[in-house]
Design brief:
With 589 residues, the protein is an alpha+beta fold. The protein contains 13 helices and 20 strands. It has a 4-stranded antiparallel beta sheet with strand order 5-6-7-8. A 4-stranded antiparallel beta sheet has the order 14-15-16-17. It has a 3-stranded antiparallel beta sheet with strand order 9-12-13.
Length: 589
């Protein structure tokens, strides 16, 4: 067939040439070469047939002589008019014979016919064409791969993944002709970064980084000499982009409608819903259309049907997304005065009460979508009021370092479970509680002194903690566990004179603090561990009350399945026949 005839030609007249090494070698794999002679027509799968044809033709082309041509300018004279054509006159095609149609060699106006000076021709047609300039075509995948390779971005093994990432993130879309169309998001991203002074759409930064990595791989540089400068440059770029993130918002705003401003995509659930902290106007509650179901707008707000909800301020043209779970939303009012809205002291927005399956929590519309870092905000997670550390807001029950394990739970460890003790805050005060806590969970709890104005985990802002850190108790820690110290800031006049205003100490081994502040650490046999079964006993029969399924008073004189003295339970605080979590002495905390 075609391949055998061309191969036979290579073996005659000294046409065979040893393949030359290319300019690049990413050391990913050896060159792909055909291992078996095969008639392409015998391969049933069309994709496999095309791949085999490409591999064989590429291999035969690499073993062929160079093509020979001349850049030529032809001048044709008709009567008194001269016509000029510039192009390429190919004298010997050689490897071009086998590698068609993937490679064409041409310059100027293309390949010209081979003619001698003084030749006479008879034109087949004389045409005068009207034309106009046209924009360049969109870049194709083949052209993009060539440009990436030319600019040192990626390798043969990674270039395809880079292109896939761009499409997955919707920066560009590929059409049926394998050409890329930039999306509005991609254009806005380029414009935003360019306005910061960083042309991140240009290959310079990535090319420099990959060149340094290649130098390390080739042994010309060490990892240590390259890593520091590269990270420093990337960090500088990140800090500037983070500081000027508003420019990205401005670029996106030029290409997209503001969230909630398009009435065709959202339906109005309730007008004059809550107050805006920016303009003091009233915001409206909207819901994404397409899943609202039947019923009135107010019913959709109180139910679980429909798409995502948001608050939109018509005056400011700003929108704030609500929690993605389908909750019932209510504007929050101050306790004791149902006519005055409860507002966030940080941004002055009216708080929103969210209810779902009998549970409720509060959010600030502004802080929920744009968490304040100064008060424990983290843009990677949701930010309800329970995570906020603002010192004056009654709804803010968050703690600096509240997600950090202070020490492993001894009760859960004794029962073979995994639990961690962390710092928590509620209207009743600060406490240490187990991550497995709850009504049916581990009951380990340590109430901390109410004399403390603020309590936090020492070193909560440090990125890494080890056994040698100052914020770790060296006496209580061992290779299997770390015990973190707590930082107490006392209220004025609430502690003995020999106490400093601030104290950093370990709650487990500081006996003076535990004695002076009446802090009691329960032992494992004094606390109910986490329940693993599905059945529940009652709380003990009252006097003459119900038995194991009853809910009588905790006198311990009734039901054998309850929490009475018959089970051997004794409160470590008052000695009574109940758990410490149910002790009445907690109320004074």
């Amino acid at each position: 067939g075609e391949f055998s005839d061309y191969a036979s030609t290579l073996l005659t007249d000294n046409n065979f040439q040893n393949p030359r090494a290319g300019q690049n070698d990413d050391n990913a794999h050896p060159p792909i070469t055909p291992a078996k002679a095969c008639d392409p027509g015998s391969i049933a799968d069309p994709t496999q047939r095309k791949i085999y044809t490409l591999v064989v033709k590429h291999y035969l082309a690499c073993c062929s002589r160079d093509a020979v041509g001349r850049e030529t300018e032809l001048t044709l004279k008709i009567a008194s008019e001269e016509f000029v054509a510039k192009g390429l006159m190919i004298l010997e095609r050689n490897w071009l014979e086998i590698y068609q149609p993937w490679e064409r060699w041409s310059t100027g106006q293309g390949e010209l016919p081979r003619v001698a000076i003084g030749s006479r021709i008879i034109p087949t047609s004389l045409i005068m064409k009207d034309g106009q300039t046209s924009p360049p075509q969109l870049i194709s995948e083949v052209e993009l791969i060539s440009l990436m390779d030319r600019n040192g971005i990626g390798t043969d093994a990674t270039i395809a993944q880079h292109i896939t990432t761009i499409c997955d993130r919707s920066y560009a879309e590929k059409d049926a002709n394998q050409r890329f169309h930039p999306t509005k998001l991609g254009i806005a991203l380029v414009e935003g970064y360019n306005s910061m002074g960083y042309q991140l759409n240009k290959p310079d930064l990535r090319r420099e980084m990959e060149a340094e990595c290649n130098a390390v791989a080739a042994g010309r540089k060490t990892k240590e000499s390259v890593l520091g400068p590269v990270i420093a440059k990337m960090l500088e770029c990140f800090k500037r982009a983070n500081a000027e993130a508003a420019k990205l918002d401005e670029a996106v705003e030029r290409h997209f409608d503001r969230l909630g401003s398009n009435n065709s995509q959202y339906v109005l659930l309730q007008a004059n819903f809550s107050s805006c902290g920016t303009c003091n106007g009233m915001m409206v509650l909207k819901q994404q259309s397409g899943g609202g179901g039947r019923g009135s707008n107010r019913q959709r707000n109180q139910g679980n049907a429909g798409g995502s909800k948001l608050l939109h301020c018509p005056t400011c043209s700003q929108s704030h997304l609500m929690p993605r779970y389908h909750t019932q939303l209510h504007p929050a009012m101050k306790q004791g005065n149902q006519n005055e809205p409860s507002t966030c002291p940080i941004c002055q927005f009216q708080l929103i009460k969210c209810e779902n399956d009998g549970k409720s929590y509060h959010i600030c519309p502004k802080c929920f979508s744009d968490p304040p870092e100064a008060h424990g905000g983290d843009s990677s997670t949701d930010f309800p009021c329970s995570k906020c550390t603002h010192p004056t807001c009654s709804m803010a029950t968050g703690i600096r370092g509240g997600d950090i394990e202070i020490f492993p739970c001894p009760v859960c460890s004794a029962s073979g479970n995994s639990g961690s003790i962390s710092l928590k805050r509620s209207p009743r005060g600060f406490r240490l509680a187990c991550s497995n806590g709850g009504r049916d969970g581990c009951q380990f709890v340590v109430w901390l002194p109410s004399a403390a104005r603020d309590i936090s985990v020492d070193g909560h802002s440090e990125e890494s903690i080890n056994a040698q850190s100052q914020s770790v108790c060296q006496s209580c820690s061992n290779p299997n566990k770390l015990v973190r110290k707590l930082k107490f800031i006392w209220k004025m006049g609430s502690v003995p004179p020999h106490y400093d205003r601030e104290v950093v100490t370990c709650i487990l081994c500081d006996d003076h603090l535990k004695r002076d502040m009446d802090i009691r650490i329960p032992s494992a046999n004094q606390v109910q561990p986490r329940r693993t079964g599905s059945t529940r006993g009652g709380r003990g029969g009252g006097r003459g009350g119900r038995s194991s399924s009853g809910r009588g008073r905790n006198t311990g004189r009734g039901g054998d399945g309850g929490r009475g003295a018959g089970t051997g339970i004794q409160c470590f605080k008052c000695g009574g026949p109940h758990y410490a979590s149910a002790c009445t002495s907690n109320q004074r905390r």
